[in-house]
Amino acid sequence: MSNNPSELCDLGAVEALASLQSRDISAVELFDSCAKRIEAVNPAVNAVVAFDLDMGREHALLIDGKIAKGNQGLLGGLPVAIKDLEATKGLKTAYGSLEFEDHTPQISDPIVESLGEQDGNIFCKTNVPEFGAGGNTVNKVYGATGNPFNTQKTCGGSSGGAAVALATGMVPLATGSDYGGSLRTPAGFCGITGFRPSPGVAAYAHNGVGLNPFVVLGPMGRTVADVHLLLRAQSNFDRRDPFSKTQSLIPDTLSPVDLSDVTAALSVDLGCCEVDEKIAKVFAHRMSDLKSVFKQSDYDHPDFDGIHNTFEVLRGVFFVAGHQERLKQHRDILGQNVIDNTERGLALTASQIGSAFLQQSIIYRQVLEFFNQTNADVLICPAAAVSPFDHSQLTVTEINNKPMQTYMQWLALVYAPTMGLCCSCVIPCGVDHNGMPFGLQIVGPCGSDAKVLSVAAALEQHFSESEVTARPIPNLAGLGLNDL
Q1: 278: in domain
Q2: Contact (Cβ atoms closer than 8 angstroms) between residue 484 and residue 1
Q3: Would you say residue 259 lies in a domain?
Q4: I need a surface site. Which of 10, 35, 82, 127 has the fewest CB within 10 A?
Q5: Which pLDDT tens digit goes with each residue over 107-150?
Q6: Phi and psi (nearest 5°) for 416?
Q7: Domain CATH number, residue 155
Q8: pLDDT per residue over 160-169, tens digit each?
Q9: What is the C-alpha to C-alpha distance for residues 358 and 135, in angstroms, rounded to an integer?
């Protein structure tokens, strides 16, 4: 796989869509290329865990007929991988759990159904940790998903299978979801792009805890333009999501901003996160190269006081709502992450919960105040505090010889913006000190989705001009594709 695609499956989504619409390629040809890549590479990485190639080819044939008549939907035949937390009609949907290892839904979740109605070719599911709990994609049903740059290392989680499928060219688009970095960490670890939208931008009609704004659906792709395309398809109003927007915050077209007009705040640790010293050095080096392209850039960050306790308490409440009955009935088959989160939640007092909700409101307002007072367009920080680690370990227990107090604390760089209800785009920026993908997180206040995407697109363009910062490409020959 190279930056100059030699196979149709290596085309970016926007480029492939243009070729489909001009009928230079067919939806069947594109699907066949993706299917061939899945069959060749997936055994080495275990990213796609359920698929029906006959279904995919049938969908492609039908969409080709619609293209011939000029009445195709927005996604016009593009294969779209669905995260295995989203019910998908006719495809095994296990949620990474033994409880659902034989579950094949009769109906799809609303977002999946909508993508199909817009002629996304839906035929496969991507791996997740059990019920999305954890920053490492491994479960008792399917096992671990390996990072395509080193299959013994983690791809992150919970949208790990999606990130790997994109990085290896199995599909041009994939769905993700994000609470404590579930979409952003895998994007950073695998050298692709992921966007966490503001709450309600992508309607989450099947959210089990509807009044929780912290978990959102979002797009994943290889470029910002591709992510923007899928987000447009995901941005439908649905009153079943109380945060859903009647007017989309996502424009139909996306243009990179002029970086010389951008004011950026830079932070290696957001003032609250332990970051590996070597990752911090990589970040500082990349920022030194960037400072000259911005109108203004200063090291600064919002006040995230109390962030760790706030996140852990509110996450515990979320897990109690979703899993307390499951813990009673199926504890013997549950993984440790689900058990740990739920038990932490059950031990909380009303006082602790009330205080956490209060502190989250304070953090949200402090984030808004920060952007207002500094006039910063975006806040830029690393996408992850560490380099990808061995997928045999569930979490990071210490950073710089400092113990993590909970199994989630190493993810503070991504869960801090979540608590501030920020939108965030992760883009690749070369490799780190271990030769693994290094990602940057571009953060904006709630509702600034279009601005964040425009800045991310401009930075992506800037990074592509240097081998040091261009998107890294995995060696697919080492993953079973020996003809590359």
Answers
A1: yes
A2: yes
A3: yes
A4: 35
A5: 999 999 999 999 999 999 999 999 999 999 999 999 999 999 99
A6: -65, -50
A7: 3.90.1300.10
A8: 999 999 999 9
A9: 27
Residue 172, CA distances (Å) to 242, 458, 474 in order: 30, 21, 15
Would you say 419 and 311 are in contact if contact means Cβ atoms under 8 Å apart? Answer: yes
* Axis-axis angle for helices 224-234, 110-117 (nearest 10): 110
Name which of 114, 202, 117, 215 is nearest 159 in CA terms: 215
Residue type, 479: L
Helix 412-419 and helix 307-330, axial crossing angle in degrees, nearest 10: 100
Residue 379 main-chain phi, psi, to 5 deg: -115, 130
Q: Which residue has the tokens 């592509």?
A: 464
The alpha carbon of 341 is separated from its chain's Cα centroid by a whole number of angstroms, namely: 21
Say if residues 441 and 269 touch (Cβ distance below 8 Å).
no
Q: What is the pTM of this model?
A: 0.97
The token pair at 452 is 């964040």
- Nearest alpha carbon to residue 148 among 445, 463, 475: 475
Residue 381, CA distances (Å) to 201, 414, 427 in order: 23, 9, 11
In this structure, are strands 423-431 and 296-299 parallel, antiparallel, or unpaired?
A: unpaired
Q: Which residue has the tokens 């139909």?
A: 252
Domain that holds residue 269: 8-307+349-479
The residue whose two tokens read 């439908």 is 236
